[in-house]
Specification:
Layout lengths: L1 E4 L6 H10 L4 E4 L2 H6 L2 E4 L5 H10 L2 H10 L4 E4 L1 H5 L3 E2 L13 E5 L10 E6 L17 E6 L1 E5 L5 E6 L3 E8 L2 E4 L7 H13 L6
Parallel strand pairs: 1-2, 1-3, 3-4, 4-12, 5-6
Antiparallel strand pairs: 6-9, 7-8, 10-11, 11-12
């Protein structure tokens, strides 16, 4: 069973629908025991960094997320879910993220021809080999909706980048933690293949 963490963020249901389409058993929940017993866990989301961290903490989910990651369960952050895994965001000064990965979330700079937020399809480059992109060719297109982007501290964890007014770290992998700034559940067949690759990942030590 795949647990989808429910912290009142947007876009949670579309992730559930994509997993059900792929034939997976999925459960939208904030119940600690269901999350900890899941085979895999997804933290999706659309919304404000500060508001999201407030909700995560008010529901007692921060420790559950860290315990889940610590026990080796494959964990996937999507869009805002990627951003929350890091230390801080320019969107919400003074608010600490989960800090599971090192880096910061920055505002996409304004440039001619590149409106902010970025809404639409962009192609990916693969600076490092990633399990999520197995058998998916470089320059594949995926769907983005965001005003803020990741600058990871560890270049070695960055498995996909894209260019939109600046270089964006579009996906990262470290141990059993995976994350995408784009929306695989809205990225047509490429996105479904990315989710299939996540589904195939085994628990660390299994």
């Amino acid at each position: 069973m795949i647990a989808i963490i429910d912290y009142d963020a947007g876009n949670i249901k579309s992730v559930e629908k994509a997993l059900l389409f792929l034939g997976e058993s999925a459960c939208v929940t904030r119940d600690k025991e269901r999350i900890l017993s899941a085979d895999k866990v997804i933290l999706p989301g659309v919304g404000s960094f500060g508001r999201a961290m407030e909700k995560i903490r008010s529901y007692g989910l921060e420790d559950v997320i860290k315990e889940t990651v610590g026990k080796g369960t494959p964990f996937l952050g999507i869009c805002l879910g990627l951003q929350l895994l890091f230390e801080r965001s320019e969107e919400s000064a003074g608010v600490k993220g989960l800090g599971i990965l090192k880096g910061e979330i920055l505002k996409i700079p304004e440039k001619d021809g590149g409106k902010v937020p970025q809404i639409g399809w962009n192609s990916l480059k693969y600076p490092n080999q990633g399990k999520l992109f197995a058998n998916i060719p470089e320059d594949a297109y995926v769907y983005f909706v965001h005003s803020y982007y990741l600058k990871a501290e560890e270049e070695g964890i960055v498995t996909a980048t894209t260019e939109y007014n600046t270089l964006i770290h579009a996906s990262v992998e470290k141990g059993n933690v995976f994350a995408c700034q784009f929306h695989p559940e809205k990225s047509s067949n490429v996105g479904l293949d990315i989710l299939r690759n996540f589904i195939r990942i085994q628990r660390e030590g299994a």
